[in-house]
Amino acid sequence: MRWLAAFLILLATQLATSAQESGGSPRFLEIDSLNSGLPPVETYIDRDTPQGTMESFILAAERDDWDTAAHLLDLSGVDPAIQPEMGPALAARLNEVIEGAMWLDWGDLPDRPDALADNVASENPLAGEPRRNIRLAILELPDRPVPVRIARVKPADGDPVWVFSEQTVGNILALHEVFGPTRFERALPQFLQERAFWTLAWWEVIALPIILLLAIGAAALAYAGMNRAKHNQPSQIAENIVDTIQMPVALMVCVGTFSLVKTWLFTFSGAVNIFLTPLQSALFIIALALIAVRIVDAVLDRVVRRNMEELSDSEAADQRNLYTNISAARRVAIVIAFLVGTALVLIQINAFETLGFSILASAGAIGLILAFAARSVLADIMASLQIALAKTARIGDAVLYKGQWCYVEKINFTYVQLKSWDNRRIIVPVSELVSNSFENWTKQDASLIKSVELRLDHRADVDRLREAFQKFIDESDDVIDKDSAKVQVIGQDVNGMLVWFLASAEDPVSGWAMVCRLRETMLKEAARLDAESGNGPSEGTPFLPREREMIVGGRDAA
């Protein structure tokens, strides 16, 4: 039995060792001593759990009891001889960093000694796992990002406790230089530095609207300056560019002024920065994107409007492709800018750390709902990219849409702007244009065959009209491929016969002018020949159809 007991003890030891090796690091960090240079704490502090540590630190900070707050820091990197002086000073500076740069709800921290994550979704990798350190935030120094952590440490002569980690304590002074109160704030009267409501001091309540008014005033000045500069531009395209970027430039000046004044003079609390920082970043990115997009739009719109007729030429296919590619690149750039901007905002507010995976999952569900609600808009966006990539309709193409001859003037996210021959603008949803058939007269070749349709009397001599038609073809410079021009009788009914006069033109514009002149010429010739034939049925061969009248009468009328 002894050997069996020894075997079981050995097996248990091996299993424990392998479990420790496979299970990763222990649940605390072993150190020789913790804050040996500090005097004993005079009041009770709870360092058993992460929540207790943060609660004790906040309560000590509210009482300005920095001697007690120093016991909640791991001062292993500080000489024990100077810990009594450095500890309280570092605790006070850490509190100012927390108030100025972080948004903490210590109630969300684990209230267990092992910090086991039991309040997260099961899909979270941290679910059910004990932890020995917790990252509270990541703060950006000029040269590097710095995490703020609390860690569980075990001194050789004591039990494990939760304190701000040694690395965080080592970075307090550098963090305080960036996120601590500015010289201007320290010069403010004491009553302005007192707490007003929520987490805001009185100076914050007063400073926020003042800075906002300064930013709006700077934006108004920038807008007025851009408006003045618009009228002094040497060219129309430069004037259009300045006109289109007035509002985004004013927005950028507003955000920049607000950010600079806030950075130079004030360090707002974390409760304010948690909203201001992502809002500033989002507005700045929106302003930059709008400036770039509107410059491209102004240049493209001016070039297209000025060269619309030239773009319909057969030799302008490369230009139409270029303008369409620019339009597509503009839309792709907007989508990329939106995604990158959203990512930057999420990174700045540390969304993946502060919001939690469950909240992000909820945001994803909300996103799916919004996407379903806006599915028609999304369909139009995808359809616009489809048009741009497939080149079914390019900027400058001549198209026949629902019986109207138009040019493609703009291809936007949700609609296509068509310019009709009489300078009307037809706005067509992209999805409708993609789902319906339309004629593209310049897809491969701008040349096309135009036709004039005349209804003639059954007895008309078509050969005599062919002579006039051939003379027209020979004398017209805007008719191409003269050998293919022809006259054809395509049908007949009780009212007469239907004749087509067909001729080729180089492009839709010259074809329209040519076919109008052809129609006029053939009508004049048909009328002249009809007049020569006389009015009576025995006087010659009529060319234009006449209505037949039937006289109905009785004997009495005779």
UniProtKB/TrEMBL annotation:
Residues in the signal sequence: 1-18
Keyword terms: Membrane, Signal, Transmembrane, Transmembrane helix
Subcellular location per the Swiss-Prot or TrEMBL entry: Membrane
InterPro entries found in the cross-reference section: LSM_dom_sf (IPR010920), MscS_beta-dom_sf (IPR023408), MscS_channel_2nd (IPR006685)
Domain Mechanosensitive ion channel MscS intervals: 377-443
Positions of region (Disordered): 530-558
Natural source organism: Aurantimonas aggregata
GO cellular component: membrane
UniProt protein name: Mechanosensitive ion channel
GO MF term list: mechanosensitive monoatomic ion channel activity
Residue intervals passing through the bilayer: 200-224, 245-267, 279-300, 328-349, 355-374
Pfam families in UniProt: MS_channel_2nd (PF00924)
Main location, first listed in the record: membrane
